[in-house]
Amino acid sequence: MSQKSLPRLAATIGVVATLAGCALGGPSGPALGDRGVRVLEKAFSSGSREAIVSYRYQSPADLTRLVDAGMDVWGVDSDRRIAYGQVSPAQLTELRRRPDAVQVETGPQIYNSFDKGYHTYDTMLEDLTKLSASRPDICRLVDLGPTWETTKGKASRRIWGLHISKGDASAKPGVVYLGNHHAREIVTPEISLNVAHMIVDQEGKDPAMTAAVQDLDIWVVPMVNPDGHALAALGNDWRKNTNAGNLFFDVGPNGAGVDLNRNYAHHWGEGGASTRPQDPTFRGAGPGSEPETQAVMKLASSRPFTFLMTYHSFSNLILWPWGYTDEAPPSKEMIAVGQQLGKLSGYKPQQSKDLYRTSGDLTDWAFGARGILSYTTEIGSWGDGFDPPYREVTRFWRENEPGARLLLQLADRPAAINGPEVRVEAGRISAPGARRIEVFRGRKGTPGKGQALAEGSLVATGRGPRQLVYVQAQGTDGQWGPSTATWSD
Ligand SMILES: [Zn+2]
To answer: How far is the CA of 28 from the centre of ligand 1 (A)?
Structure first.
């Protein structure tokens, strides 16, 4: 599988996004015909085999059929029910046979420009190494295992996790953030690194981050798919890992490789994942067959994680299990927290299967096998694509930082999502409409056992050394809300 044989595409997705904006209709462009399918762009270069299409789907089941037929779905505008993605000539022929007409438009070509600023595997590792060296008292870099290429002696890449905690964390509630299951989703290692920096750099300054490090067991795995990412960093449009199996040729929109987010070992292979190695959603040879998914499952099985957040791009969505079945997940808290993550990010929150059917994805496994409340965030819109200018990471972080913080705040007691939130401004407590407000000094305590304080009271004592103060409130329905951490001085 030489680099030369990989599709090298040739213009920025930003240009295509402009084209898409024109072609797709909406307020500013001609409406997409009600017959549904439109090819925005075809044939990146002479001899290339894929076309980019937008498809107006009728239902999640309709979109699932398209995915099953091998479409590489890049992203979805779920309000307008338009899916964007890439198809092979054979798939295009198949689409043309559907009752919906396919229009073909030529346009600029696409590749992954990998704007300056994005981390490569090496610079990501350097950043994590520096970060852990800067605060050895609260974090350490952990080797979670080899990549597929490494197991074959072709590379020396590992999957790295930053473990952030204080003291013995093994029994504390945990939160794990992961990025880059899909190689070309280059925004996602950046958001994960920002999560790590937010916590480590602010420990001792920001009371919420100080409390998180004291009370929780936190893991950040910015790059689950370093082999694939290495191809993306060279400008290739690459989704899967690089497991070539017995293939000696590169086929399909993404060549060989296993879709790591269809490979997890919970209801693996139950639809919404391809059995064909050349397809973008190829599920792999067996449940959890890939070293990368094994590394993640091993980590997530080793500790009592409350929450898992896996960052993908793009579609501006917050998704939770299940993906493999229409049944709703048996956790009201998971849904309530997911709705709140939607509010905080501005993304649309929904159960995964309402987008389209998937099986073997990380969140289904983490919730199904480990009971971890799990979310996929699809960062960015079609206009952002996989390859936005690096400066856009600032905006994505602004959208995703509040949700990343929420998981830390709720990790000891997810049901607190149903209670009132306390604000502490200039040392003064505000929790309008609360039945009871209480504080714990130094350590978090059981709701109902703290020192009662009135609305509008000052939290600060002005005495003794600075310590953390946790404030929480009970609603009129009896539900206790999350703890808000603040300083005693
Ligand atoms: Zn993805």
So the answer is: 29
> pLDDT tens across 130-163, in order?
999 999 999 999 999 999 999 999 899 999 999 9
- Looking at the fold, whether 286 and 140 belong to one and the same domain comes out as yes
CA of 432 from ligand 1 middle (Å) equals: 40
Average pLDDT over residues 278-303: 95
Q: How far is the CA of 397 from the centre of ligand 1 (A)?
A: 17
Kindly give the interhelix angle for 291-301 and 362-370, rounded to the nearest 10 degrees: 30
Q: Is residue 88 part of a domain?
A: yes
The fraction of the chain above a pLDDT of 90, given in percent, is 63
How many angstroms does the Cα of residue 315 sit away from the middle of ligand 1?
10
Instruction: Identify the helix (H) or strand (E) that includes residue 163.
Output: strand 158-164
Question: How far apart (Å, rounded) are the C-alpha atoms in residues 5 and 148?
Answer: 20
For the cut 50, the answer to whether the pLDDT of residue 357 exceeds it is: yes
| Residue found under tokens 């610079």 | 123
pLDDT range class, residue 241, cuts 50, 70, 90? very high
Residue 164 Cα to ligand 1 middle (Å): 25
Q: How far is the CA of 130 from the centre of ligand 1 (A)?
A: 28
For residue 273, report the distance from its CA to the centre of ligand 1, in Å: 13
Q: How far is the CA of 142 from the centre of ligand 1 (A)?
A: 24
Describe the crossing of helices 121-134 and 187-202 by its angle, rounded to 10 degrees.
10
319 and 351 Cβ atoms separated by less than 8 Å: yes
CATH number for position 443 = 2.60.40
Residues less than 5 Å from ion ligand 1, measured at CB: 182, 185, 312
| Domain that residue 8 falls in | 3-104
How many Å lie between the centroid of ligand 1 and the Cα of residue 39?
22
Burial 347-362 (b: 16+ CB within 10 A, else e): bbbbbbbebbbbbbbb
Give the distance (Å) from ligand 1 centre to CA of residue 451: 46
Nearest to 211 by CA among 175, 265, 249, 261: 175
Do 128 and 225 have their domain in common?
yes
Q: Distance, CA 429 to ligand 1 centroid (Å)?
A: 41
Helix (H) or strand (E) holding 398: helix 393-410
pTM of the model: 0.88
One domain, residues 366 and 429: no
CA of 424 to the centre of ligand 1 (A): 37
Q: Report the separation in Å between the CA atom of 240 and the middle of ligand 1, taken as the mean of its atom positions.
A: 9
Q: Point out the least confidently predicted range of 247-261, 300-314, 318-332, 444-458.
A: 247-261
Residue 394 has pLDDT above 90, yes or no: yes
